[in-house]
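#struct-queue
[09:14] JT: dropping the first one here, sequence first, then the structure tokens:
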Amino acid sequence: MIVIDGEQGEGGGQILRSALSLSGCTGQPFVLNGIRAGRKKPGLMRQHLTCVLAAAQVCNAEVEGAEVGSKSLTFRPSGSVYAGNYTFPIGSAGSTTLVLQTVWPLLAIADAPSRVTVTGGTHNPAAPTVDFLTKCFVPAIAALGHRLEVTLHRHGFAPAGGGRVEAAIEPADGQTSEPFALHRRGDLVLRRAVVHLANLEPHIANRELDVVRKKLGFTRDELHLEELDRVQGQGNVLTIEHEFDHVTHLATGFGKLGVRAEQVAARASSEVRSFLATDAPVGAHLADQLLLPLALRGGGTFRTVEPTLHTRTNAEIVDRFTGRTTRIRPDGDGTFHVTVA
């Protein structure tokens, strides 16, 4: 039984999600104490509970402590993973992508294809958006033999929710012939900024895009407004995309009541400028998400910007379950070299 202290590192929900995925993939049970101890509202929230129940269903696990507010969880997988068609309703605007990222590694080792539908929020602060999965994450893990297709059927924003995302997951191919290595971006292929707007005035999006134009030098042809219909409540999400030969970087700004459109765009633009100030191919968010699939699929290396505490904490959890060693060393030029071996 692996015992995990939820207060370690950044003390958030990633500890739980990674433990669930790795437990099911390796067959090792775990107990997690102090769930989300580093958050203002510790314990399991609805989206975290959905992750627990989804993982338990996929690998037929025995679970203790699976209820909203629980600060301790015991998870005993059966040792098998079951392919199938699954639907997981969060019942709130909680992140659908975090649920998907919990179960896809499990279903990737099943013996048949699976399809997973999750309803809730699709574009949430402090979580990868569906755009991040489709443009950044899915292409990156394809190099590891993973065949994952993510489709957004309906946007969902907080607090209304109502979004719907679907993932088609094929069993992973055999071990790749060459170790994963992502050290260069390559040339810039495309850049664009898109505001997805739901039930709000267009001038909000236009103000955000004008900031991107001024701060990042985008042309008007690279700026886009997409007004959404069939969406519950209001939503405003700015995505700034840079597609290179070998990787895509996304920066996202989330509109919020009381926060000016100019502030939303300025923060996202600042993130982009920080990334472009280095030549690292992997941004901070993608670095975090690559660790688990690398550990499960033979290891590999990549260069990134300075890793967050979130990433370093995730590395500790991944190493405990897989027996691998994640090394993070500075390159001396503002970038870092990450090796999972």
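[09:21] JT: and here's the second one, same format:
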Amino acid sequence: MDATRRARVEALILEELTVLIRRGIKDPRVDGASVTRVELTEDARQATVYVSALGFDALPADDDTLARCVEGLSSAAGFLRRKLGPSLQIRHIPELLFRADRGLSNTLRVEELLRQLEAEKAGRKSDPEGA
């Protein structure tokens, strides 16, 4: 499968899984799950689906919640694969592997560390004697 076709299939899988996860899965472990990206292998036999989960405060969920979310999606992989079949126009529906995407939580952590560093710098500037 060429790169352009693979990119289109990845986008379609992402779109379809987003809808299926929201509407079709009743497992409480996957509440707040969102598909961030999909990577399809060269032969289109396997799709790695990266997911993120939001907590109740609209911030990224902790590692435990994210792990439970990935576990819930992995247990529903067969169901999701069957539901993907009619919308994908390819010979073989790829096997779905779910992985945690910690990109957003890592970004927020770096921003928090930068804010702390700025606060420390501001505190040193206001105390010129260094006491």
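[09:30] RK: nice, looked through the second one.
[09:31] RK: The mean pLDDT is 84.
[09:31] JT: good to know. The helical segments are 3-24, 63-75, 77-84, 103-126.
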